[in-house]
From TrEMBL:
Single annotated GO MF: acyltransferase activity, acyl groups converted into alkyl on transfer
Keywords, alphabetical: Transferase
Domain of life of the source: Eukaryota
Protein name: Citrate synthase
Amino acid sequence: MRKQIINCKRLYHQNQYFFNPKADLKTVLREQIPIKIQGFNEMKKKYGDRVMGEITVNQALGGMRGIRALFYDQSTVDPIDGVMFRGYSIPELHELLPKLRKPSAEDFQSDQQPLPEGLFFLLLTGELPSYHQVELIRHEWDVRGKVSDELINFINRLDNKMHPMTMLSLAILYEQKTSKFAQLYNESKLNKSNYWEYTYEDSVDLIAKLPRIAATIYRKKFKDGKPIAHKDGLDWSAQLAHMMGFEGQETLNELLRAFLTIHADHEGGEVSTHASHLVGSALGDPYLCMTTAYTGLAGPLHGLANQEVLKWILNFVEVHGYDVTNRQIEDYVNTTVLSGRLVPGYGHAVLRRPDPRFLHLYDFGNKYLRDNEMIRLLHQMTDVIPRRLRTFKNISSPYPNVDCHSGALLYQLGIQEYQFYTVLFAISRSIGCLTNLVWCRAFGLPIERPESADLAYYNNLFQNKIPKQEKDDQ
Ligand code: AMX
């Protein structure tokens, strides 16, 4: 089965080349880049002048929904099947990506969660890494994850009234002074052919430092502010849990491995990913790009939804408890929607079925927390709420999205400060945004610069008041 899936997926890559499962990530990337650039240039030469579609005025005014005009190679989102990471679905990745412990022949179907380190390799190269390659990454992130006392002091001096996402953005902006890309560019030592390399170096540094930065924010905002020393030998997710103060809690470590893997990427049009892509197109270094991504993610329609879900559930529980009727849930949904508010954790701009990332976390809850009262309530809600939301004709998708379940799992496994949940999303999303950035630099994508038009233009366009020549020019 495993071999079949892998062979089938490898056809997904246009350019085949010999993949050495012993080579380190940067070597694999260095070998792939010229081959992929060739494929990219050939496609552009062949089809560059072809027309891809039409745009309606509603699309232009409606958040550009459904306009396919971005290039993004590492993941796709299908309205029914959901996200595919380099052609692999979430259940396939659950099976195929390396885990903390290599399963023996007998427990090949072992249900451990994949390591996000492996997803980083897959998103960058399109290849499933070996255990050896993931171990190299784990070690490298461990070594590069140390941060300066200056940065820790900077975080610890921030106003505790700030949201943790604001603290994260500020911490990354502060750390921008360590950008190798920015420094070398400033010294005129970069040229277009090595942009990707220093983007890669900054990306690895930034990703490696995230557990320490996030844990510092967590302990400053919610605990006693005392840092917990880094522990050698842990994977990225377990290191984060350890430094937050959750020592040796293996179920939480497993949840974080799952969480940090499935939130990493969701094609190129999402607010956070697109924001980082846009800033990157002006040659902003990875620190600038990720600050933008994080501020985009911090909006309640996007990444903040995971904290909103938990708040919404806790408000309900405060009144009704955990043992409730379907009718009580329906009434709560009605009250929320009819008062012009959102039911967080439901709906999506693209998906038209339950999000496979939600389903993955649902299974996790079933496996580890089946008898937990909040998880039981959540499962009841995910049954009842879509039926109720469907009755509101304006809502395109009544189904649970990725944020529906994550907060309740984190809450039950000890992370009860729900303002922190979006920071966890941000840590994971960094993997997707930054791998994209490396490839944008390798392909030499230009500055992004679509055009806008004023109200008069839209009014005049269909009354033939704009001469044809001017229309074409615009
Ligand atoms: N509760 C109440 N109303 C909702 C709704 C929900 N869960 N989902 C959509 N709607 C409303 C919209 O606000 C919009 O109202 P309007 O007609 O007054 O403008 C209408 O239904 C049509 O919206 P849509 O086409 O179904 O969705 P969209 O593409 O405009 O927005 C999304 C998608 C995710 C922003 C929206 O479903 C939403 O706000 N959901 C709740 C917040 C949430 O869970 N966000 C997380 C999404 C995943 C992520 O990025 N992390």
